[in-house]
Amino acid sequence: MERVQKIDIHVHTVLEKGIPRFTGDTFTTPEELFVFYKLLGVEKGVVLPGVSPEGSFDSNNNKEAYQVVREYPQQFYWFCNIDPRMGKNSPDTDFSHFINYYKDHGAKGVGELTANLYFDDPLVLNLFKHCEACEMPVTFHIGFKGNDYGLIDELGLPRLEKILKMFPKLKFLGHSQKFWSEISGDVTEEKRGQNLPGKVTPGGRVVELMRRYPNLCGDLSAGSGYNAISRDPEFSYGFLEEFQDRLYYGTDVCSPLNITWDMIKLSAFLDEAMEKGKISYAAYKKICRTNALRLLER
Fold this sequence. Notes:
By secondary structure, the protein is of the alpha/beta class. The relative contact order is 0.14. The chain has helices at residues 30-40, 62-71, 95-104, 122-133, 158-166, 177-180, 205-212, 222-230, 233-242, 266-275, 281-296; strands at 6-11, 42-47, 76-78, 110-113, 138-143, 151-152, 172-175, 216-219, 247-248.
């Protein structure tokens, strides 16, 4: 079976570099990103802008993401991004006003949400209500409360389960260490923000929630997604097969320095799993490409 050209469900890129991070690096330009894509066999990526102050270093807003797609329409899709405090900073803000504007300009979803608010904060619930009404999937990052970025939840993801129940028609793409560490049942409060090694034990909340709620999907990008899939391959092959319709290949490339990071290893892992018969070609093709196209070409 031939390898497929992948769709990257999660990437960050800017047309012009801005202020460096404390580490000295910046977001990739599209031209820098295409070096990654040639290496990884990626045909097209989904640009995720950033609008929340948490975790941000430089502007990477909706206008800029849209401009990237306008200049490189054959290489990119885009999600718009909404901070739950935008508009009136109120739980009755009409976020459909924002979302439909961006949807009319080609946005295919909302995210990556990084505001450091609880999943069930009234401001966040209001945003989810409008995302569901506008039929726009959401990519979220989970963070700790304070000194971090991402929506806040506790060990066991009780607040995530609450919103999965509240918004059954809204498709959620889970992402980050605090999400993927819970693929294993032995994760602790002290370790859930890490990319954990070793065997996956039964009882992982991500597995339980994905079995229980068909609106929960997995964004396999970043070191967190790769680690979750590579740490225990024998478990992962079954996981990839079971949830083949709700898993999405991604990179989360944020910097030219990422060329040596774990996030780029997922492509080869999936290729090898298919070629060695560890996962079916059907599952491989869906995760690498078809699921994304189904989401993006609606």
